[in-house]
Amino acid sequence: MVEIETTHANEIFKDIFYDLIKNGRNCRLRVFGYSMHPTIKNGECVVIRAIDYKDARIGDIIAYQNIGNKKIVIHRLIK
Predict the structure, then answer these.
(1) Comparing C-alpha atoms, which of 17, 43, 36 is closest to residue 74?
(2) Is 21 helix (H, G, I), strand (E, B) or coil?
(3) How far is the C-alpha of 37 from the C-alpha of 65, rounded, in Å?
(4) Mean of the per-residue pLDDT values for the chain?
(5) Mean of the pLDDT values across residues 51-62?
(6) Which of 12, 17, 54, 70 has the maximal Cβ count within 10 Å?
(7) In this structure, what is the dihedral angle of CA atoms 1, 56, 14, 25, given to the nearest 10 degrees?
(8) Are 1 and 74 spatial neighbours (Cβ–Cβ below 8 Å)?
């Protein structure tokens, strides 16, 4: 799991991020964590774009918001 840094200072950014994604825009974010290494390295940037969940396929890398801690999480879809 890779989590995107979401400190208190980023709360306004998160609102803007979600609005952009909902309106079909791509967003580039820097990610922190090692669980997706070597595919995604700590500190690298990723581009996130909205898709219909029905279009997601096994092996895709997806981003979603963790309901518990509100962080944006990136995982490879395995089932």
Answers:
(1) 36
(2) helix
(3) 20
(4) 82
(5) 91
(6) 17
(7) 140
(8) yes
